[in-house]
Amino acid sequence: MLSFVFPGQGSQSKGMGGELFDKYKEITEKADEILGYSIKNLCHEDPEGKLGQTQYTQVALYTVNALMYLEKIRETGKEPDYVAGHSLGEYNALLAAGVFDFETGLKLVKKRGQLMGQATGGGMAAVVGFNEEQLRDVLVQNTLESIDIANYNTPSQIVISGPRADIERAKSFFERAGVKNYVVLNVSGAFHSRYMKPAREEFEQFLEQFNFCEPSIPVISNVNARPYKKSDIKANLGAQITSSVRWCESIRYLMGK
């Protein structure tokens, strides 16, 4: 069984994409037209230091992920049996499964990135060395009910999300409880939490103008760690903005196949 998984925000780096922009000129030109700027220049040179900003990061990663997938298929001649993507990467999984074409996906990601980039006052932190039960105990014992779980990355690496002041305040509580590491992330918003509800609602309205196809390859959803159904595509893409990324459970599902 062959699975392809696509990375999300945080995996970007200057120079990504390499020669693929020139190799797949048609897609690069489509991206430039939709975005109104050079995607190659953003990824290779990043002259204005925008690659780390959410509204630019997401379209850059979506485009590079798409190019790398095309190149992998060209090199191997093999399509995957399953696909999945972490947060933003899920859009590339849906693209690989033929749910939408490159242009549609880029328009969705552009809007998603813009809405998420508008979020302010929020924060996120990676909690390393605690399982979910230990993490929730610390939150409850220290009246940190304002904090949500954003990403279940591994059994012992979980990302939390909430008001920035509470995320920063929580650090000392986790350290006193014996956590291995507590890393406050460089983000402006409380992504994958209840605080993204306004962005979710606006994105759900935006989704209504699009029609999607049945996945040709099973796509594992971040929301429920199970394969997408065509009837759930719009609901899942909206819910993903406020829901936890169930990555660990998704990988377990794939390992069981």
Question: How does this structure look, described?
Answer:
The chain is α/β, with parallel strands linked by helices. It has eleven helices and seven strands. The chain has two domains: 3-118 and 195-255, Malonyl-Coenzyme A Acyl Carrier Protein, domain 2; 122-188, Alpha-Beta Plaits (2-Layer Sandwich), CATH 3.30.70.250. The mean pLDDT is 97.
The gist of it:
The chain has 257 residues and is of the alpha/beta class. It has eleven helices and seven strands.
Describe this protein with a few key phrases:
7 strands; single chain; Malonyl-Coenzyme A Acyl Carrier Protein, domain 2; Alpha-Beta Plaits; four-stranded antiparallel β-sheet; alpha/beta; 46% helix; 11 helices; 257 residues; three-stranded parallel β-sheet; globular
Distance between the termini: 7 Å
CATH architecture of the largest domain: 3-Layer(aba) Sandwich
**Shape, please?**
globular
Q: Outline the low-pLDDT stretches.
A: none
Which fold name corresponds to the CATH topology of the largest domain? Answer: Malonyl-Coenzyme A Acyl Carrier Protein, domain 2
Mean pLDDT: 97
Level of helix content? Answer: 40-55%
| Class inferred from helices and paired strands | alpha/beta
Give the SSE order as H and E letters: EHHHHEHHEHEEHEHEHH
